[in-house]
């Protein structure tokens, strides 16, 4: 029976998760979407608005 | 799909040849089944959970992870296709076996109706480009009935008719094809999420919706009970266990990876969705939420929207077919254990398929479709019926898991739910599943929410179970068998046969040794 070395599938799932988290983090560096107009971010995110 | 004229009933039998399935093949195959759910659930859940959708997905997902652990343990210990009904039968006896079976049958019929409706919903993404009208424009009021959409209903019935024909003729899904579709879906969904988070996600919109659009308690409970739909398909773990050679080495890893993948995707989609569009947009596009989301992502949206719509329609159609096949397998298993009449197993003389089961349960799905289209939101009605069947079935699975730890400690469990408390019970050590109890409380809370908040689900769901029970009483009385008492079954012999057919010879040896030890102890006591 073929059985890939232990951990590859788990690594794959972890990679997917990391990609999602990294894309959220990189989102702040790209001048699209959320970073368009920081003044409109509102009072609920003062630390972002103050950036 | 392969042209493979084989009896579906035979598939369910223990005599079917098992296959070598790689961990990746099994994982992708599972994802083709479970990964489709978000295409349906996203719009439905957001319509109720509103600004708290991510929280609702995370809460329902936590319960789902525990249900997944339970299924992984039971499917690797008892690798047969009966799934929840088999575990309830084995752990709790014939009566609960039939109740669990009826809950699953409800889900399989709803599965056919709901996923066919959703598949048509994704096809309707193209309607404005082809006909110049959206599908919503065909909705009309018929007397006291509001928002009835005959066009969408007709499309759904057409898809179900194709499924009936395909299944009667015995055209079988190829597991390779399913694995490929699963991989494409994983890639497509992953790309939508990554590109969405990179270029379209506005955390301030998410926070704004959380702050100003938090749902009422009723809507929160409604949303969290419907969110269980995004995690449909755990029965496919049992199915995979039945068809895989040496399942004990493949199933636990595959199913755990699958459970976490689905959880990550569900929470990510809802978090992304709330940061890209107002929840009202998803509620308006309940039929094609993922395509709507993909369409507004910069750069890829122009292609990703239509691509997600085609992929969604395809994968949901396959999921709908899983309902037809699942109902056939389940009725076969129910009749094998004398819980329903063997009349259901009748095979078509030419195509060698269980034609009665296919026609009966597909026609029930047709009735459910027509009735649900008479309500203001067909998807919502089908969704809350589904939630009732799933939560009832899962509650019984948890109770069975706990009971089986005590009544059948000898069966080797290649995987055990985490968090166990070692207890002494009748002179032997038993691992009491603490997480099993927490999971049972979690899923019964969702069942309670369903009964409390779903006006249609709380009436139609129990009515279905009652109808199945009345049939069971009639059948058992007619056949001269007890109704509430279980029939005598030799579970030990059955377990040895299962392990032998699965080629799990190490586990078989362990099982025999455990039984010998038990017998020796019994002799000593005497």
Record the SSE blueprint.
The complex is a heterodimer of chains A (51) and B (526).
Chain A (H helix, E strand, L loop, with lengths): L7 H20 L18 H4 L2
Chain B lengths: L1 E2 L4 H5 L10 H12 L2 H13 L3 H25 L6 H9 L1 H30 L3 H4 L9 E3 L2 E4 L1 H20 L1 E2 L2 H25 L3 H10 L4 H10 L8 H9 L3 H30 L2 H6 L4 H7 L5 H36 L18 H19 L4 H30 L12 E6 L2 E6 H20 L3 H22 L12 H11 L3 H21 L1
Antiparallel strand pairs in B: 1-4, 2-3, 5-6
Helix pairs in contact in B: 2-9, 2-13, 3-4, 3-11, 4-11, 4-12, 4-13, 4-18, 4-19, 5-6, 5-18, 6-8, 6-16, 6-17, 6-18, 6-20, 8-16, 8-17, 9-13, 9-16, 10-13, 11-19, 12-13, 15-16, 16-17, 17-18, 18-19, 18-20
Outline of chain B: globular
User: Which radius of gyration of chain B do the C-alpha atoms yield?
Assistant: 23 Å
Radius of gyration of chain A: 18 Å
Strand order of the largest sheet of chain B: 1-4
Number of helices of chain A: 2
In terms of quaternary structure, the protein is heterodimer
**Are there runs of chain A of 5+ residues with pLDDT below 50, and where?**
1-5, 38-51
Helix share of residues of chain A?
A: 40-55%
Helix content bin of chain B? over 70%
Largest interface: A-B, 27 and 33 residues
Mean pLDDT of chain B: 88
Q: What general outline of chain A do the C-alpha atoms trace?
A: rod-shaped
- Strand proportion of chain A, as a percent range, falls in under 5%
What proportion strand of chain B? under 5%
Structural class of chain A: mainly alpha
Distance between the termini of chain A: 55 Å
E-strand count of chain A: 0
Secondary-structure element order of chain B, N to C: EHHHHHHHEEHEHHHHHHHHHHEEHHHH
- Secondary structure tally, helices of chain B: 22
Main sheet attributes: strand count, strand direction, barrel closure of chain B: 2 strands, antiparallel
State the end-to-end distance of chain B. 60 Å
């Amino acid at each position: 029976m073929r059985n890939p070395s232990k951990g590859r599938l788990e690594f794959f799932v972890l990679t997917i998760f990391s990609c999602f988290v990294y894309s959220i983090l990189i989102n702040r560096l790209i001048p699209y979407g959320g970073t368009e107009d920081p003044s409109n971010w509102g009072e609920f995110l003062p630390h972002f608005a103050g950036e | 799909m392969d042209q493979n004229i084989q009896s579906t009933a035979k598939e369910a039998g223990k005599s079917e040849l098992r296959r070598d399935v790689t961990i990746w093949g099994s994982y992708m195959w599972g994802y083709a089944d479970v990964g489709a759910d978000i295409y349906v659930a996203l719009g439905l859940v957001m319509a109720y959970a509103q600004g708290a959708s991510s929280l609702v997905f995370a809460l329902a997902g936590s319960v789902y992870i525990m249900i997944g652990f339970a299924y992984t343990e039971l499917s690797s210990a008892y690798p047969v296709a009966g799934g929840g009904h088999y575990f309830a039968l084995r752990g709790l006896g014939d009566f609960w076996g039939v109740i669990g079976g009826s809950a699953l049958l409800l889900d399989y019929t709803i599965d056919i109706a709901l996923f066919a409706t959703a598949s048509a919903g994704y096809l309707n993404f193209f309607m404005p480009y082809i006909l110049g009208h959206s599908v919503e424009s065909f909705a009309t009021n018929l007397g006291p009935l509001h928002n009835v959409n005959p066009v969408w209903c007709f499309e759904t019935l057409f898809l179900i008719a194709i499924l009936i024909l395909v299944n009667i003729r015995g055209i079988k899904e190829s597991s390779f094809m399913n694995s490929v579709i699963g991989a494409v879906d994983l890639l497509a969904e992953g790309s939508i999420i990554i590109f969405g988070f990179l270029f379209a996600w506005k955390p301030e919109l998410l926070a704004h919706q959380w702050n100003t659009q938090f749902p009422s308690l009723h809507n929160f409970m409604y949303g969290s009970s419907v969110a269980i739909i995004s995690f449909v398909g755990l029965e496919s773990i049992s199915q995979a266990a039945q068809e895989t050679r040496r399942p004990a080495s493949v199933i636990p890893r595959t199913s755990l990876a699958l459970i976490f993948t689905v959880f990550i995707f569900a929470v990510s989609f809802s978090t992304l969705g709330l940061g890209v569009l107002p929840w009202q947009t998803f509620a308006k596009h309940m039929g094609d939420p993922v395509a709507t989301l993909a369409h507004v992502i910069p750069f890829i949206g122009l292609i990703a929207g239509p691509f997600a719509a085609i992929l969604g329609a395809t994968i949901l159609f396959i999921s709908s077919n899983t309902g037809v096949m699942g109902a056939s397998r389940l009725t076969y298993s129910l009749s094998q254990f004398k819980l329903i009449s063997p009349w259901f197993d009748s095979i078509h003389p030419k195509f060698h398929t269980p034609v009665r089961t296919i026609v009966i349960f597909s026609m029930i799905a047709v009735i459910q479709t027509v009735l649900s289209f008479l309500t203001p939101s067909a998807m919502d009605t089908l969704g809350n019926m589904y939630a009732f069947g799933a939560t009832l079935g899962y509650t019984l699975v948890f109770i069975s898991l706990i009971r089986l730890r005590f009544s059948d400690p000898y069966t080797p469990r290649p995987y055990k739910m985490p968090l166990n408390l070692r207890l002494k019970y009748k002179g032997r050590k038993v691992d009491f599943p603490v997480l099993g109890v927490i999971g049972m409380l979690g899923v019964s809370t969702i069942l309670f929410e369903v009964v409390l908040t779903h006006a249609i689900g709380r009436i139609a769901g129990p009515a279905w179970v009652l109808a199945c029970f009345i049939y069971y009483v009639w059948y058992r009385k007619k056949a001269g068998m007890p109704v509430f008492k279980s029939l005598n079954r030799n579970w030990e012999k059955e377990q040895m046969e299962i392990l032998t057919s699965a080629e799990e010879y190490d586990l078989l040896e362990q099982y025999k040794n455990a039984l010998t030890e038990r017998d020796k102890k019994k002799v000593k006591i005497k």
